[in-house]
Design brief:
Blueprint lengths: L2 E3 L15 E4 L2 E7 L13 H19 L7 E8 L5 H12 L5 E6 L9 E8 L1
Parallel strand pairs: 4-5
Antiparallel strand pairs: 1-2, 2-3, 3-6, 4-6
Helix pairs in contact: 1-2
């Protein structure tokens, strides 16, 4: 039976009927993180740079709750509402993942929950 992770400290609670992360067969699947401030539950102000930093912090918090780090991540998917911001996102992403280079997809979408500019989901492996 899959193990679920919820209520990660320093990460926003799920805003719908889903878990922050689910572990199955040694893989941990994180639900997509949007730039919600964990305290207020609102989108952080400040544009794509601030939003990307918050998303990465939220991912870091959920990974830590599951006993993992960015080095455990094997696949990411980045959803952006405007690929014109790709270089900014890519630089922040590279800084967060450092030497880890998981497989990645990046796509532009029409809209994201709560008006977010970015959402990132990850799959990690123990």
């Amino acid at each position: 039976m899959p193990r679920t992770f919820n209520e990660a400290p320093n990460a926003p609670s799920a805003i719908g009927p889903y878990s922050q992360a689910v572990e199955a067969n040694g893989f941990v699947f994180l639900s997509g993180q949007i730039p919600l401030d964990p305290g207020s539950g609102t989108i952080v102000p400040g544009g794509i740079e601030a939003q990307t930093k918050q998303v990465l912090e939220n991912i870091k918090a959920v990974l830590a709750h599951a006993g993992l780090t960015f080095s455990n991540v094997v696949k990411t998917t980045i959803f952006m509402t405007d690929l014109a911001h790709f270089q900014i996102v890519n630089g922040l992403y590279e800084n967060a993942f450092r030497d880890a280079k998981p497989a990645r997809s990046t796509v532009q979408v029409a809209a994201l929950p709560k008006g977010a500019m970015i959402e990132i989901e990850v799959v990690a492996n123990r």
